[in-house]
Amino acid sequence: MSYKSISCGLLHSVAIRDDDTLIQWGSDKYNQSQNIPPPGTKVKAIACGGHHSVAIKEDDTLIQWGDISAEQNKNFPAEGTKVKAISCGAYHCTAIKDDGTLIQWGNDQADQTQHIPAPGTKVKAIACGNLHCVAITNDDTLIQWGDTDNDERLGFPAQLEPIVDTSEPPKSPKRSRLMSKLEGGRKRKTYRKKKLISKKKRQTHKK
């Protein structure tokens, strides 16, 4: 079997075979295969979020499956909406409609739609990060929107004014469930390391 497209989530992967059907593998701990399209479903593009996936079908409409516990499917495009490109963040997705305009759906609890382009903005390429998105407009310039609390816009090309007032105190970073879990793990490791160093110092002092 040959393949022509792939995409990966945090713990799962999806590929398009040469006959345009889907295959998925990896973890299903977070319902990554929940409501997966039936065998034989043909698609032309795929994109994976954290624990969910989206595909463009042969008729240019969308299908989504996987985890929805964090509202990944909130405001999913109306049935029949035709798109030509898709990208997914951890809990949200963005697509380019057939008229070149943007549509976004999913979780917005971490400001994923903050400063989203005005309705009617035409773009020709999109890419989503964990909590933010970037697009190339029809005049080949860049636009970015979404969360900025973790320096996602740091060093952005100077063609546009910064969307964050640097005179204001920085906001405290927002944490996804996975980010919080990883951060908690790092803190525990640091604590254990400090505790071990302290113990060694006491032992050395006793000697």
Describe it.
The structure is a single chain. The chain has 207 residues and is an alpha+beta fold. It is 14% helix and 33% strand. The protein has two domains: 3-163, Regulator of chromosome condensation 1/beta-lactamase-inhibitor protein II (Methylamine Dehydrogenase, Chain H), CATH 2.130.10; 175-207. The strands form four sheets. A three-stranded antiparallel β-sheet has the order 1-2-3, with no helix packed on it. A hairpin with a 4-residue loop joins strand 11 and strand 12 (142-146). The radius of gyration is 21 Å and the shape is globular. It starts with a strand and ends with a helix.
Question: What structural keywords apply?
Answer:
3-stranded antiparallel beta sheet; 1 helix; 207 residues; 12 strands; single chain
Question: How far apart, in Å, are the first and last alpha carbons?
Answer: 67 Å
The description of the largest β-sheet is: 3 strands, antiparallel
Query: Per CATH, which architecture of the largest domain?
Result: 7 Propeller
CATH superfamily caption of the largest domain = Regulator of chromosome condensation 1/beta-lactamase-inhibitor protein II
Helix count, DSSP H or I runs of 4 or more residues:
1
Instruction: Give the percentage of residues in beta strands.
Output: 25-35%
The CATH topology of the largest domain is given as Methylamine Dehydrogenase, Chain H
Give a brief rundown of this model.
With 207 residues, the chain is an alpha+beta fold. It has one helix at 177-206, and strands at residues 3-8, 12-17, 22-26, 43-48, 52-57, 62-66, 83-88, 92-97, 102-106, 123-128, 132-137, 142-146.
